[in-house]
# Entry
Amino acid sequence: MTRNDAREKIIFALDVECRADTERWVTLLTGHVGMFKVGKQLFTACGPDIVRMIRERGGEVFLDLKYHDIPNTVAMATVEAARLGATLCNLHALGGYEMMAATRQALDRECSGKERPRVLAVTILTSSTEETLKGVGIDLQVPEMVVKLAKLAQSAGIDGVVASPLETPLIREACGKEFLIVTPGVRPSFAAVNDQKRIMTPAEAVQAGADYLVIGRPIAAAPDPVAACETIVDEIVNER
# Structure
């Protein structure tokens, strides 16, 4: 794996609240990360124009809004994500087969003859534990539930999942090598764990089969964010 290959695996989480901060991070990190994640806070604060701005500046966008609603609503929202130019977008696998299949069908119609965004299904959030699942009436253990949802998403035509790196080998075994896996819960060796519980280092996550690594605070809180990106690249390349 080359250093550029390793950089392309890094998705920087834009956990900011305004356009000015977004512009600063996009200017600073373009060329050092492969993609920028726009989540609920930033999208709610700035709207679709924030995605357009990133795209105009040459950045790829993972639109992380985790759609979960009736099938037609989610399908049409995902079509709008495609029109914005998102490279990746996502929905909740817990929305069920019909919701996910309708989304894939709507995207295929909208993007016929052109590239479409790849859609990911969120399995179980990295902040969740068995106790969390039990609290909402799910009695399965986290790994079993993650694989169950990943297989359901794949059967509905979804391109991949968002899942903890700890479940990545199980998903690879169940869904094959072409199924995309995007992993939050990644913490470089130099970073604090914070509030995520099911975590790995970048090198461990890539070795386990992750295609993309979502990393925010370890880069944003570093004294030199660009150097932090390069250290993460070092960890991935040297471990491989």
